[in-house]
């Protein structure tokens, strides 16, 4: 059973690296100062292995990507908050409930949004805080921030111990369609950001927050692999498109 679980998580977040493949997804990111991103969550297996990111919405709920989560294996999943070090510190929680969007499809990453309810109460302090849902549309040209513990090179074992972050710029839906439309359907429920060859989100960053100031506007969803080799945009679930569903689900 344990081997099966690890295989499923790997399939969801780390599709084989080919130019035409889409995977979960910071290469060439900067190390985040301790406590600078207090909304960041690490989603792990019970042995401590990080596999996806998330964002704290309140003392009970974490926002992440649906492709990261297999609800049938909820008892093996843990959420850790309050630390930049993936091997040390933080508050750890089991889950009491998983609510992924009912119309999520693995084939094309539509409706790639999921909510995790922790078993217990997240204690807020200087290193642990919630992040707001967006109030307005994210427009092309917006300066945004991504963060995570995803791969830092194409080496299969190149996962960082410390949280990394990177500034990115939103591009228009039309520009994203021109680049990624042949691989995956692109519509207004997604946000795409520019990608510079040699610098990118990557496997393990999936589910992590795309942030504009004090609000989470996107959820890391997909990238063309190998990461940072091609100059394709990176795709995120647009949180504003699902704000009503999120608000009702965590009420």
Automatic annotation (TrEMBL):
The keyword Protease applies. This is trypsin. One of its GO terms (cellular component) is extracellular region. The keyword Disulfide bond applies. It comes from Pieris macdunnoughi. Residues 1-17 form the signal peptide. One of its GO terms (molecular function) is serine-type endopeptidase activity. Its main location: secreted. It catalyses: Preferential cleavage: Arg-|-Xaa, Lys-|-Xaa. Keywords: Disulfide bond, Hydrolase, Protease, Secreted, Serine protease, Signal. Belongs to the peptidase S1 family. GO terms for biological process: protein processing.
């Amino acid at each position: 059973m344990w081997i099966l679980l690890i295989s499923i998580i790997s399939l969801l977040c780390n599709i084989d690296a080919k130019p035409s493949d889409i995977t979960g997804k910071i290469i060439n990111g900067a190390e985040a100062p301790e406590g600078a991103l207090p909304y960041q969550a690490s989603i792990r297996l019970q042995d401590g292995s990080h596999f996806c990111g998330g964002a704290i919405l309140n003392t009970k709920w974490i926002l992440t990507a649906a492709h990261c989560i297999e609800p049938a294996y909820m008892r093996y999943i843990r959420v850790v908050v309050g630390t930049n070090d993936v091997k040390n510190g933080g508050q750890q929680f089991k889950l009491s409930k998983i609510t992924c969007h009912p119309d999520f499809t693995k084939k094309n990453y539509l409706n790639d949004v999921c909510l995790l309810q922790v078993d217990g109460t997240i204690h807020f302090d200087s290193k642990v805080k919630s992040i707001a849902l967006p109030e307005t549309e994210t427009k092309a040209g917006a300066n945004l921030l991504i963060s995570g513990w995803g791969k830092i090179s194409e080496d299969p074992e190149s996962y960082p111990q410390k949280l990394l972050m990177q500034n990115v710029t939103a591009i228009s839906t039309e520009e994203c369609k021109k680049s990624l439309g042949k691989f995956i359907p692109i519509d207004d429920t997604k946000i795409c950001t520019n990608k510079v060859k040699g610098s990118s989100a990557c496997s393990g960053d999936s589910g992590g927050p795309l942030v504009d100031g004090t609000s989470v506007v996107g959820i890391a969803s997909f990238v063309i692999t190998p990461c940072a080799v091609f100059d394709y945009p990176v795709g995120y679930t647009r949180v504003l498109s699902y704000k009503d569903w999120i608000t009702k689900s965590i009420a």
